[in-house]
Predict the structure.
Amino acid sequence: MKILSLILLASLAGCSTQHAPAVQNHVVEKPIIFTAKSGQSADAFEGSFLVPENRLDPNSRDLTLHYVRFAATGTQKGNPIVYLAGGPGGSGIATAKFWRLPFFLAMREFGDVIALDQRGTGASNDMETCTSSQIIDGAKQMSDDEFTKINQRALQECVAIWQDQNIDLRGYTTVQNVADLEALRLHLGADKLNLWGISYGSHMALAAIKQIPDSLDRIVIASAEGLDQTVKQPARTDAYFGHLQLAINSQPDVKAQFPDIRAMMHRVHSNLDKAPLRIQIPQKDAETVDYVLQRRDMQQIASAMIADPSRAGQLLQIYNQLDQGNWAPVAGLLQRFYTSGEGVSFSPMSVMTDIASGIGAERRKLVEKQAETSLLGVYLNDTLGLVDVDPSYDLGDEFREKPVSDIPLLLLSGSLDGRTYVDSQHEAVSGLRNAQKVLVTNAGHNLFMLSAMEVRPGVLAAISDFMQGQNVDGHEVVVALPDF
């Protein structure tokens, strides 16, 4: 979990509570020039609003949630469009600043665009990351069971630390996040909201369909994570490698190098199980630290690098070198992320929100059964090893039921998404009668990021048509494969 986390960057609708979002008579915002890392800038407004940390506690402290608003440019201003970042833990404001400002500005055609920092993220975060006293000693061989127990003890320790800091961890759930959207709507004085999200942001949007349906107009999501899909199916990860192989086979030179990627990865894993590799990881001071490379390490590294095909290509080169006995490339990768003697750490919003979304008993049996024989085992899923720390945080099976609705929704899926798979995404929206699906062939999980460069015209055209009420269901956007 340490390596993966480093590389990766009870509905309230029927609850009786003394907390209700206050309607503000006027919105106080500060005009700014918003400048992206690229140097591109645009006029915008900074704003904030107050929400309870835990709406189920009448004595809850208040949180200040921050956003940046890009004013609409279209002749017919629609409802505000709220961007929901992935993660959980991603910052909407940082997304606009570092990666997707052109996309945010293009979306202004359909209404004000709100880059929201969800509770516990970015400018809306007043909590510190917890670094526990639990250390995973990379220089020693360790079983999977002991690895899981160390992470569980670390989370137990961090939960106690956060509670001592008067942080109400039961406020960090998707249900509370959706209630924040309703508070934002009232703050803005909007009749309804349009939602635009990716990955965890899609998870949040699907929950909003169940929780605040009357406050929603239209929804655009990509790389969808269903309400019961926080923990992914290992068998579908195996199927993904089959799709990746077909893409590789379309490039003759690459096919010659990687005729069977699953066999190569199995070989490397098997060899590491038989004899873990003792390697040296370079440090900044020209020294090295010892590290025992195990099968689990490669499963975690693979889990972190398969989201997009370009990164998957880098991963295959690392496996190829290991298969030939050269561990230098993986040591170079670990150099960027591994610090000897550092305790296991967690960010409260990220870990608690995933734990709250949780996993049902039947799905857990399925996942654990599949993991016994799958290529990456359980390591695409940090959450699975942590949900048992305190099961009382789980939102329950009712939360995980699929939404059923007539709200118009557009789903954009990358055919080579290595984290949220096309079949799973389609299942996640199968109860939505007005769902339209567009396939972005050869794109991965971060297809909006790719869209800011190569794919943007096709993706934006699909979104534009959808926002104007046209039917784009079944359309396809094709992008070029990377050079693996």
Residues 1-25, 450-455 have pLDDT under 50 and may be disordered. The longest helix spans residues 144-164. The two ends are 27 Å apart (CA to CA). The chain is about 40% helix and 20% strand.
